Amino acid sequence: MSVSSSSSSLSTFAALWRLKPFVQPIVGRLIGGALSALAAAVIALMIPIVLEQVVKNFDLGGGAGDSVGFVIAGAFGVLALSLGEAVMVWLRRWFVLTPATEVEYQMRSQLYSRLQGLPVAFHDRWQSGQLLSRMMQDINIIRRWLAFGLILLVVNILTIAIGAVLLFRWHWLLGAIFLVTGVPMWIQGYLFEKRYGALARRSQDQAGDLATSVEESVHGIRVLKAFGRGKHALVRFSRQAETLRETELRKGRAVAEIWFWLDLMPQIAFGLSLIAGIWLIVQGQIDVPQLFAFFAMAAVLRWPIESIGFLFSFMLDARTATDRVFEIYQETNTITDPAQPVRLAEPRGELAFEGAHFRYQDAGAHERDLLDGIDLVLRPGETMALVGLTGSGKTTLTTLPARLYDVTGGRVTLDGVDVRDLELSELRRHVAMAFEDATLFSASVRENVLLGRADLDIHGDEAERVLREALDVAQAGFVDTLPNGVETVIGEEGLSLSGGQRQRLALARAVAAAPKVLVLDDPLSALDVDTEALVEEALRHVLAETTALIVAHRPSTVALADRVALLERGRITAVGTHSELLRTSSHYRHVISSLEAEEAARTGAIDIVASADEEEVQA
Question: Among 271, 299, 329, where does a domain finish?
């Protein structure tokens, strides 16, 4: 994914400032950590001053006993300062580690909530690996930078500033040498930011692409093995991994260059200061203890100076991570609750499409709408089968009642109320779906089936009744043979189950939701003929009081319906009973023939759904 314009145009400070809402609750602890770190740095800067006094008094003391005593006192002073510095370092960690993890927790929770709220259209555009890398890797980088990088960067810059001022304490020339030799480092730091920022972004995006490849390979392992394409997948993965490695090497070279200057310039400063210091001693402007203290102070400043490169790159990594996370926060959610929602006191289940249009976001301007003016009414308690050739828009139509997508024209109504005027939670309580591609979660059978019943105590008697009824309708009695029955935790996406078992559990989940409108997108495609017949018989009883829209990809599914709607080139061209449409619509006969041919190829026997009248028509 590329950097959004809003992110790339921000300065590093402005980009990181967006973390303020998350950091604000812990700002007091961060300040405490910064003050502790600064105190540790100031204590470290006091040590050279103590050493100066020790050396000076050792040289000038009247007797050996007095000199030794002064040295011992100085040693204890240095020890006390060192212990004080260690205590301040411990305090810094105590102040920041726990609250930084709280920021990480809050950011992850809010990002997950955001991902759940964003429309399906967003997830169509984004790779799952990119989302996963932002959720895990990028937020972890932000947490480590807040707890470590931010505080040390601020404190080390202040330490360098305070130390530079103290260097002038002994002689202006020595201090000036350190300041002048620091100029190339700041120039290189500016150039480093420009180059490293782009590399950091590229690296983190490529890491997301690599995560996507791993996820796809794991989920598609059966396909890769079945077609013997494991090596092909490995080659593709290796190519992506090599690209990431090359980017990381370029990052490493950029960091090495800044480290070169950060290491070289202090060495030059030491050499020049030594020459200047000896000359100043000869001139009588400073003495040996002062030069000794100057170099001790310069040694203390060496770590803060050298760490700037690492901390600067860390800050740029955090800025890039923040950009990537906020790309998701800044996504516009087009499917939201209305400002003044309408409530359905006693929903009847009348579902209507009124001039409904829909086109996908990547459709070309010259292309017609995929759904090009749908007019269709499902009466309360009616079962409507939706048939049409592949690509006619059947599955897309089923996503509109529950607002997985919103119509781009016209409207969809439930009991005469535009579904966009209902709260999403209420709408999806009244409208349930079962998809052809059954998705299950790494949870128990009970949790998967009762997913849509937040109103029930999942282990209560009522929940048990609902669970059993739903499993009976879906002919999912196989769950009782699992190791722990309905408490068995099924594998990721239910891949430990067969396709038919997954579909039956997905169907049971839709039935257990007890909706007023049930939308089924060919939910029986993976079932054998005998099981399908049993499920259809049970569904007839369930659908007696439920409005149902069923996408029919098999002739037998049509038998469930009270009426059939024919979808052709984005429009409903005919509605009626199966018998009526066979008599009046040549396109319907063509669609049914296609379904029968597909069924014959799947089962080896043509299953024709026809009455005596229909047989006359066909004859």
Answer: 329
- Check residue 542 and give its pLDDT: 78
Of the two residues 497 and 18, the one the predictor is more confident about is: 18
Claim to verify: residue 53 and residue 171 sit in the same structural domain = yes
Edge-to-edge strands, sheet with 563-568: 431-434, 517-521, 547-551, 383-387, 563-568, 571-576
Buried b (16+ CB within 10 A) or exposed e, 317-345: bbbbbbbbbbbbeebeeebeeeeeebebe
Q: How many domains does the chain have?
A: 2
356 shares a domain with 301? no
pLDDT tens digits, one per residue of 557-615: 787 788 999 999 889 999 999 989 999 999 998 988 887 777 666 665 544 444 434 44
Which amino acid makes up residue 18?
R
Q: Quick one: which of 417, 393, 391 has its CA closest to 405?
A: 393
pLDDT value of residue 58: 64
Q: Which residues contact 271 (CB under 8 A, 6 or more apart)?
A: none
Give yes or no for a contact between 96 and 150, defined as CB atoms under 8 angstroms apart.
Answer: no
Mark whether 312 and 370 lie in a shared domain.
no
Q: Same domain for 428 and 393?
A: yes
CA end-to-end span of the chain: 58
Task: Please tell me which residue, 27 or 293, carries the higher pLDDT value.
Answer: 27
**Do residues 265 and 306 make contact, with C-beta atoms less than 8 angstroms apart?**
no
Tell me which of 294, 329, 364 is where a domain ends: 329
Containing structural domain, residue 420: 351-618
Residue 450's CATH number: 3.40.50.300
CA–CA separation, 358 vs 498, rounded Å?
34
At residue 42, the pLDDT reads 86
The pLDDT assigned to 155 comes to 87
| DSSP category for residue 458 | T
Give yes or no for residue 1 having a pLDDT over 50.
no
Query: What CATH number is associated with residue 271?
Result: 1.20.1560.10
Q: Tell me: do 314 and 369 sit in the same domain.
A: no
Does any domain span residue 382? yes
472 and 606 both lie in a single domain = yes
Q: Give the model's confidence band at 67: pLDDT under 50 very low, under 70 low, under 90 confident, else very high.
A: low
Distance separating alpha carbons of residues 96 and 144, to the nearest angstrom: 10
The mean pLDDT of 524-550, rounded to a whole number, is: 78
Give the CA distances from residue 5 to residues 119, 181, 323, 327, in Å, rounded to whole numbers and listed in that order: 22, 37, 10, 10
- Residue 343 domain-assigned? no
Is 346 among the domain residues?
no
Q: Would you state the structure tokens that stand for residue 591, as one six-digit string?
A: 């669609």
Q: Do 357 and 274 reside in the same domain of the chain?
A: no
Burial, 390: exposed, middle or buried (Cβ in 10 Å; 0-12, 13-18, 19+)?
A: exposed
pLDDT in tens, 410-421: 999 999 999 999
| 79 inside domain | yes
CA atoms within 13 A on the CB side of 517: 29
Q: 572 CB contacts (<8 Å, ≥6 apart)?
A: 353, 374, 375, 376, 565, 566
Mean pLDDT for all residues in the chain: 83
Res 76 pLDDT > 70: yes
Residues 503 and 600 in one domain: yes
Q: Give tens-digit pLDDT for 305-328.
A: 777 777 888 888 899 899 989 989
